[in-house]
Write a structure and sequence with these properties.
310 residues; four-stranded parallel β-sheet; 16% strand; six-stranded mixed β-sheet
């Protein structure tokens, strides 16, 4: 393994995560399933890539200057990643989140020094109106403080943040027949798929929890898969950017999360298990001799306060 030596900044520790082959949870006769382990990023999430890209994009354009406050609403990991990047760069940060998301994520934001506003949820569920209420609170903070709103759902800099992830997959995995991932902002799926399509023909599949099937059925609903399915089609997710959408059963994904950590040593959350379950479905369809790649979005350490690993 090549080590880069002493890094001048923790921000340069973002990326360079491993890809592993699943051995036990993939049925016989299915395609090979590879998983990119993004929990190795500094805050334990692939959102570190996006956060850095959004902040540095704003700096290049002169939209973000020293001392200006940054603000965002988030299901948790984006807030943690922005808090990390802003701490290193010296920007004050206000984050709007909710008790629908893991307390570990909320505590991480505070640990990095972010000011946190927690919007109450409907019984701990992720619902479309929750995101609307969080967005309204961000708008108030941005107006009151003159803050820069990173606006992760519309910010095209996010795509640049994820192209590096795509290039790493190409370098590590070689030829890929299919790539799949759950959709939150849609930035990761779009950024990675653009790079994979430049490298060769690949089937790109957008995943979502079956209880909020916006992409597959045009309806939304409550769920508990953090970081996914906001109840609308996100602006960054273009119809030509993916080939197919699949709705995945959340209880089945939660069961797989436990199998992944105990049988494969892959310690990740519900959205990551949903990604792997989608990859297994595609692998069964493609059959042996093919390769499906997906992403473990974060580390299971973010979900220990819940019941996921009981």
């Amino acid at each position: 393994m090549n080590f880069p030596g002493v890094l001048p900044s923790p921000l340069q520790a973002i990326g360079g995560t491993p890809v592993v082959r699943l051995r036990r949870v993939v049925p016989d006769g299915a395609a090979e399933v590879l998983v990119k382990l993004e929990g190795g990023n500094p805050t334990g999430s692939y959102k570190d890539r996006m956060a850095l890209a959004m902040i540095e994009g704003a700096e290049r354009r002169g939209e973000l200057t020293p001392g200006r406050r940054v603000v965002e609403f988030t299901g948790g990991s984006t807030g943690s990643s922005l808090a990390f990047v802003c701490a290193v760069k010296g920007y004050p940060l206000s984050v709007v989140s909710s008790d629908a998301f893991s307390p570990e994520k909320l505590r991480t934001m505070r640990a990095f020094g972010a000011d946190l506003t927690v919007v109450p949820s409907d019984g701990g569920r992720v619902t479309p109106d929750l995101f609307e209420r969080m967005r309204d609170e961000v708008a108030r903070i941005a107006e009151r403080e003159g803050a820069f709103w990173t606006d992760q759902f519309h910010n095209a800099d996010a795509l640049d943040g994820y192209t590096g992830l795509g290039r790493e997959i190409v370098d590590q995995a070689g030829a890929v027949d299919a790539f799949c991932a759950a959709v939150g902002t849609g930035g990761m799926l779009m950024g990675v798929s653009a790079v994979l399509r430049e490298a060769g023909e690949v089937r790109v599949v957008a995943l979502e929890p079956a209880t909020s099937p916006v992409l597959t059925k045009g309806t939304n609903g409550p769920h508990t898969v953090e970081g996914t399915a906001t109840g609308v089609v996100p602006p960054l997710l273009t119809s030509g950017g993916y080939d197919q959408a699949l709705a995945i059963d959340e209880p089945e994904a939660r069961e797989l999360a436990l199998r992944l950590v105990r049988e494969e040593g892959v310690f990740a959350g519900t959205s990551s298990a949903l990604n792997v379950l989608g990859a297994i479905r595609i692998a069964q369809e493609l059959g042996a001799g093919h390769t499906v790649v997906t992403v473990a979005a974060d580390t299971g350490l973010k979900y220990l306060a819940g019941t996921l690993f009981d």
